[in-house]
């Protein structure tokens, strides 16, 4: 292992995980959150690499990330990071670097935004061609697998609705959401098989270059095996400015929706908004709750 001049090596970056002969010219901390410490390691004569060290309580996400990126690579779906090396003993993964900056942090022209959302739609369409053997949360397999979509989504809604009530959510809104889910049960039958879903594909996880062209997709730690419309619904629901142009471009890139697609989208948007409400409540961040409750009311059947 060689080092470039005046390279300060953080303690979280053991450079022996890098390919033999690597010449390090710089190390830059990247956003990692509470689950991992993430560094971009710049190398002489080759592309930089990402080194991730997972926190002790989140070591299981290392195996999940490696598994999901492996599924994407095998299916030719991307561009996404490729796994270079896995050190399970030290909970370190080395990944290729996808160039670009998060779309959420980049000022783009309206034309570039529409083009990006069409590309997001094409990526999701390709992702959703990866069939999964059951419905459930993805790790290195499927946790608590369920054979069919109605059973899986009834379980998920029940969990979130119980959390909503336990956290002090308005009883009338809880009743309205429960009635909506009950009334819309039949649309859940329209999904006949689970596919791989990114389950967090918002602008923060889409990378673009200076011209606004999408360069890659990252962060698969929330992946699930589910109805593809559940995935599309999260992208729509997490679009902060609720732009019709963005949504139109997304669906243009994705292609025709499956049977009862719009009904499923609306129901799943309710699920994601409910999930977001319960998340903020669970961490004690009450500020966003009234606005999310208003969104929930707009999504229930009347």
Automatic annotation (TrEMBL):
All copies of domain Aminoglycoside phosphotransferase, residue ranges: 30-268
InterPro entries, A to Z: AGP_Transferase (IPR051678), Aminoglycoside_PTrfase (IPR002575), Kinase-like_dom_sf (IPR011009)
Pfam family, one: APH
Gene3D superfamilies found in the cross-reference section: 3.90.1200.10
PANTHER family: AMINOGLYCOSIDE PHOSPHOTRANSFERASE-RELATED-RELATED
Name of the protein in question: Aminoglycoside phosphotransferase domain-containing protein
Source organism of the structure: Virgisporangium ochraceum
């Amino acid at each position: 292992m060689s080092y470039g001049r005046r390279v300060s090596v953080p303690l979280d970056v053991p450079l022996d995980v890098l390919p033999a002969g690597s010449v390090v010219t710089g190390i830059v901390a990247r956003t990692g959150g509470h689950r991992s410490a993430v560094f971009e390691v710049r190398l002489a004569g080759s592309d930089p690499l990402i080194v991730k060290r997972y926190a002790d309580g989140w070591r299981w996400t290392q195996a999940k990330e490696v598994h999901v990126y492996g599924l994407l690579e095998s299916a030719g779906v991307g561009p996404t990071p490729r796994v270079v090396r896995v050190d399970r003993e030290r909970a370190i993964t080395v990944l290729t670097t996808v160039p670009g900056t998060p779309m959420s942090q980049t000022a783009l022209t309206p034309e570039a935004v529409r083009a990006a959302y069409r590309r997001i739609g094409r990526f999701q369409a390709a992702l959703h061609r990866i069939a999964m053997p059951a419905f459930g949360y993805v790790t290195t397999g499927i946790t608590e697998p369920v054979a069919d979509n109605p059973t899986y989504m009834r379980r998920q809604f029940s969990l979130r609705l119980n959390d909503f009530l336990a956290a002090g959510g308005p009883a009338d809104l809880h009743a309205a959401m429960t009635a909506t889910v009950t009334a819309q049960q039949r649309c859940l039958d329209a999904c006949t098989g689970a596919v791989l879903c990114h389950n967090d594909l918002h602008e923060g996880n889409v990378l673009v270059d200076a011209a606004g062209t999408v360069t890659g997709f990252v962060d698969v730690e929330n992946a699930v095996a589910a109805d593809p419309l559940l995935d599309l619904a999260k992208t729509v629901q997490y679009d902060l400015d609720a732009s019709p142009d963005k949504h139109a471009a997304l669906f243009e890139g994705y292609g025709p929706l499956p049977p009862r697609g719009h009904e499923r989208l609306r129901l799943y948007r309710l699920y994601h908004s409910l999930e977001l409400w319960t998340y903020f409540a669970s961490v004690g961040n009450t500020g966003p709750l009234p606005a999310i409750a208003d969104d929930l009311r707009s999504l229930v059947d009347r």
